[in-house]
Design goal:
Layout lengths: L2 E2 L6 E2 L16 H76 L6
Length: about 110
């Protein structure tokens, strides 16, 4: 990573140059290190924030998938219950009608 000379402003690699290759000024190791560290910390923080955001999205996605699965399961349960309800309804209707005919038809001589 290049740094900028505090005196002439030219960029150079501190790993390869003990002093500024442009003007020969010794670069302020601590100040530059501080800047580099701050930049790295900022980058790390941004990376972490991005990872957190991604995790949040992933969690939201998982919740959505879970809700969707539960919803679909509930939907199929609802469909089954509706079918069961109609079967019971029809059975009860047949019982009521057959009882009705058995009880009332003799009155009409049938
Ligand atoms: Zn310089």
């Amino acid at each position: 990573m290049n740094i900028h000379c505090d005196y002439c402003g030219s960029a150079f690699d501190p790993e390869e140059n003990a002093v500024c290759p442009q003007c020969g000024a010794p670069w302020d190791r601590d100040a530059e290190k501080g800047r580099v560290r701050a930049a790295e910390e900022k980058r790390e923080k941004e990376k972490k924030a991005a990872a957190d955001t991604e995790n949040l999205f992933r969690a939201a996605d998982a919740i959505q998938r879970t809700v969707g699965t539960v919803g679909r399961a509930a939907g199929s349960v609802h469909r089954v219950l509706r079918v069961v309800f109609w079967i019971i309804f029809l059975v009860v209707l047949v019982i009521i009608l057959s009882t009705f005919f058995r009880v009332f038809l003799p009155f009409f001589g049938l």
